[in-house]
Amino acid sequence: MAGMASSPPPGPWRQAIRALGRNRSAMIALATLLLVTLACLLAPLYARDVARTDPFVSNVAGSVMLDGREVDIMQPNDNPLHLGLSPIGPTWRASYLLGADSQGRDLASRLLYGGRNSLLISSCAAVLCLVLAATTGIIAGFSGGIVDAVLSRMMDIMWAVPVYLFAISLSIVTVSHGLVLGPFVVRADSLFIPVFIIALVYMPYAARPIRGRVMALRGAEFVTAARCLGVPRWRIVLRDILPNVTTTLVMLGPLLMALSLLAESALSFLSLGVQAPAASWGTIIQDGEGLIYTRPMVAVAPGLAIVVVVLALNILGDGLRDALDVRDAGRRSS
């Protein structure tokens, strides 16, 4: 009706969400991530009620019922002399669905438990990295002068060191002696250690684009007007700078989580990340290294899980970037 007021146009964030919802690839990637996360969260239920096994207890002398007959978990090798033993391969049944590892433990259960730690570490490392990068980038970009010079040179020094060499060096020290942060002491087997190391290693890569964004905003008209009105610097940062940096943080989130997952898997494969008896996808790949020719599933299954999650995160990140471009275009047009 002509007398009725027209509905207000959707806000920029609602436009971004709608644009993301129309991106089929991003929605498939998001659904994949949610499905993998849900499966990993249900790991205790799967191990107790489906596989009916403890994935952290060695079972080299155990057996499993297949087609009405009892089959040993450890099988003779397929060589002419049948020397040595190899774990049972995939049964494609509830028990030992993907087979067993060298200790006779159910691989599917360990895969889900390992996914819990890998996803937890990578997501927490990405969040911590964003917090550190946002703090450093905003302080450097908004302050300028000597503060910006000092922080930028520190970032350049960290940037110059290869990522994995930096991470391995920090891990060797912390895994041996733990981590001491003032009055707080973190044990060597704590999951916080790989979270902290990965966040610190990737912090310069996220801080640089945030600093550049803040430097561009520092000269914007609304920031200059706020300064002329005598608005405190902390208020300008919280009300004018930080909301405009949010899009950069959101776009960096999936990328940092994918990089953190790869770094965690590499460190755990080298026994410098998640420590036994805990499991992660990297430690499971390490367990399957000696079985790559006889029972390749032990190494292939977690490797495929890493590929799927990293690919989904990259696709979701591309979708978020496109959606936030629509948001920024809508904000400029309004």
UniProtKB/TrEMBL annotation:
PROSITE patterns: ABC_TM1 (PS50928). The keyword Transmembrane applies. Belongs to the binding-protein-dependent transport system permease family. One of its GO terms (biological process) is transmembrane transport. This is Peptide ABC transporter permease. GO terms for cellular component: plasma membrane. It is a multi-pass membrane protein. It comes from the Bacteria. Keywords: Cell membrane, Membrane, Peptide transport, Protein transport, Transmembrane, Transmembrane helix, Transport. CDD domains: TM_PBP2. The chain crosses the membrane at residues 119-151, 163-185, 191-207, 241-263, 297-317. Residues 115-317 form the ABC transmembrane type-1 domain. It is found in: Cell membrane.
